[in-house]
Design a protein that fits this description.
By secondary structure, the chain is mainly alpha-helical. Among the domains are: 44-151, Endonuclease III, domain 1 (Orthogonal Bundle), CATH 1.10.340; 243-294, no CATH class. Helix content is 51%, strand content 1%. It has a two-stranded antiparallel sheet with strand order 1-2. Helix 1 packs across helix 11, helix 2 packs across helix 3 and helix 8 (140-151) packs across helix 11. Bound molecules: iron/sulfur cluster.
Length: 296
């Protein structure tokens, strides 16, 4: 995580954006947060800041669309309304309540983490990043999401949506840690949870992968894409780039192979590394001492 004592946040942004200075960052933040205050979706896990509910939503939303999660989320909460109820459940009951969502490893990890919270933290959710990350199935992204949304810890999150927004706003080939630094530089220290949710909301509803709604975007004045992000990606000879050649496709194939225990797809090394780094960032895999990927 970027050093939170850094105060010259604009210095953390890509160097080809000299005009993105402190006043411009403040304006950018204000536009985003006021848009979020007016447009945030009324989702069931946003009704309060209960850590168990936020955690459940963050795990369910990994690799799954909001529309597919809402009903499963309600059903799971009816069955296991508290972390204590989840911790004391038998695994078959947990998996049954998870049915239909797929990637059952997420449910097993939640079950194990619930037991650890009850046993090691007397049933109280830890609020620190390091303590959260020590729990099964909670990686960098999920720990930062829970800490900022529930406990107001000033730490940024980067998921696929945030990465896309930042990539278009800066248009400067951000990769890996650069995304986290850029998000950290823009983060509102006063409203970190709302800021993080606003970034994800913007990526999900406005700065969409295909056909982004640049005309309705609150941060268009500070965006390098200048309304052209929806144009098809073309190679150097002007041909449309097929989906199979994108990093998104590579991530999906790598994860599916890991879940199924199949050999990984053959990918060019740099592309494979980008895809693995993205999955690791989202807490969907971890790497061993030799760098080999495995499920958390
Ligand atoms: S202006 Fe368009 S490309 Fe830029 S952040 Fe907004 S929706 Fe995304």
């Amino acid at each position: 995580m970027a050093n939170l004592r850094v105060t010259n946040y604009s210095a953390m942004l890509p160097r080809d954006r000299p005009k993105f200075d402190a006043p411009e960052i403040r304006r950018w933040r204000r536009r985003l947060l006021s848009w979020y205050d007016r447009n945030r979706r009324d989702l069931p896990w946003r009704q309060d800041r209960d850590p168990y509910r936020v955690w459940l939503s963050e795990i369910m939303l990994q690799q799954t669309r909001v529309s597919a999660v809402v009903e499963h989320y309600r059903r799971f909460l009816r069955r296991f309304p508290t972390v204590q109820k989840l911790a004391s459940a038998r695994e078959p009951a947990v998996l049954a309540a998870w049915s239909g969502l797929g990637y059952y490893r997420r449910a097993r990890m939640m079950h194990a983490a619930a037991k650890a919270i009850v046993k090691q933290h007397a049933g109280r959710f830890p609020g620190g990043i390091a303590e959260l990350r020590a729990l099964p199935g909670i990686g960098r992204y999920t720990a930062a999401a829970i800490a900022s949304i529930v406990f107001d810890v000033p730490t940024a999150v980067v998921d696929g949506n945030v990465e896309r927004v930042l990539g278009r706003v800066f248009g400067s080939g951000l990769t890996g840690e650069g995304f986290w630094q850029a998000a950290e530089a823009l983060l509102s220290r006063k409203r970190p949870g709302d800021f993080n949710q606003a970034m994800m909301e913007l990526g999900a509803t406005v700065c969409r992968p295909r056909r982004p709604l640049c005309g309705a975007c609150p941060v268009r004045p500070g965006c390098r894409s200048d309304g052209r992000a929806g144009e098809a990606r073309l190679d150097s000879r002007g041909r449309r780039i097929p989906f199979e050649d994108t990093d998104r496709w590579a991530r999906g194939r790598l994860l599916a192979a890991l879940v199924a225990g199949d050999p990984p797809p053959a990918l060019e090394p740099a592309r494979r590394e980008r895809a693995l780094a993205g999955l690791e960032r989202d807490g969907l895999l971890v790497r061993g001492a030799g760098g080999e990927p495995r499920l958390p």
